[in-house]
Amino acid sequence: MTRLEAKYPGENEYLQAVREVLESVEEVYNQHPEFEQARIVERMVEPDRIFTFRVTWVDDRGQVQTNLGYRVQFNSAIGPYKGGLRFHRAVTPSMLKFLGFEQTFKNALTTLPMGGAKGGSDFDPAGKSDAEIMRFCQAFMYELWQCIGPDQDIPAGDVGVGGREIGYLYGMYKKLAREYNTGVLTGKGGTWGGSVLRPEATGFGALYFTQHLLHKAGKDIAGQRVAISGFGNVAWGAATKALQLGAKVVAISGPDGVCAIPDGITPEMIDYMLEMRASNRNRVEDMADKFPGKTVFTAGKKAWSVPCDIALPCAFQNELALEDAQELKANGCWCCCEVSNMGCRPEAIHFFQQGGILFAPGKAVNAGGVATSGLEMTQNAQHISWSGKEVDEKLHYIMESIHHQCVQYGTRPDGSVDYVKGANIAGFMKVARAMLEQGII
Ligand code: 2IT
After folding, report:
1. Which residues make up the CATH 3.40.50.720 domain(s) of the chain?
2. pTM for the whole thing?
3. pLDDT averaged over the chain?
4. How far is the CA of 86 from the centre of ligand 1 (A)?
């Protein structure tokens, strides 16, 4: 860590992600001198390669705009590079390195053979027209296409990249590569190779994981009050499944503030989340305007200010700080399942764990998204499509298996489970063994 901090000063998200994993695996690592001899940690914390490129496009006013694009191919020990693309104004190499690093261990947990990658751009979709989104996606793919391929590197969506963007990206890829294998991207439309349930999968998987965690702790999700941050694709899937399982979603939030929903979210509100995302306005207050009387909007507040039993961060890294964790506990919250990647600050996680609040990390909880991308790749390779029932069963099985791996590697002497340690050790052992078996490369 000391060497990395000196080498990459200021790459805070990346250093935070690496520190968490190394702290978790230290003890196990020291029991395996063969890992140390092959310098597994020194190799694993560096991405295999990073592509950086300029993306120039023309906005609706005819002005020329320039952004930066990246693809971080982190680790291919257990399969081709796999991971999403993030379009957000704050994207930096540090952010994508943290995400690619996390993705490597998350993908290892899914039971499927996928390596880790992440990419994206500092392009800000907020306020952009559909035509601008299309031109940007086309310009981005004009550079990216040479770095990816259905057997090499398979991008998907992440923050700011959903079905619409994947459509524009795929259209341009096909034109440039003259290759018609839909397996080069996942999260596609249902009529052209997309898997049924992929849009829902991150949120659904997170709730299946939460069910297993609660079951292990002798509790049930039905009737619990759930606070969700964000209103994008992940929050939408989580709210949908929470409602189906009989929980009450009492809050969603956005960069502008929080919408408290005292009687619980309704299917109409969940549908409206999709419209809010498609509008690119990036405002959760629109929900309060649409459903007056049923929602209470408070500007500048987070979802964690609304009393709940279960907190589900579904927005962005480091969105839940120590003071949020303290507020949650004071308001009666007893469980936090992190759905966003690295959604909680380390001090918040520490507070949860010390305070007896059940906590599970994003790389376990949110892995249903990339797992279902893996299932989409399988269907594309076989030129078939599975029914919703088949995909849902497989997703269920995968989330159960991830929970099992966490329990296997994370059970404390008193029988409780350290899900952070469990997920990190399980992912690490799989990637480390694969690297060892493949020699010094
Ligand atoms: O963070 C993630 O796991 C994703 N954004 C999904 C990646 C994927 O390849 O489906």
Report:
1. 199-360
2. 0.98
3. 98
4. 10
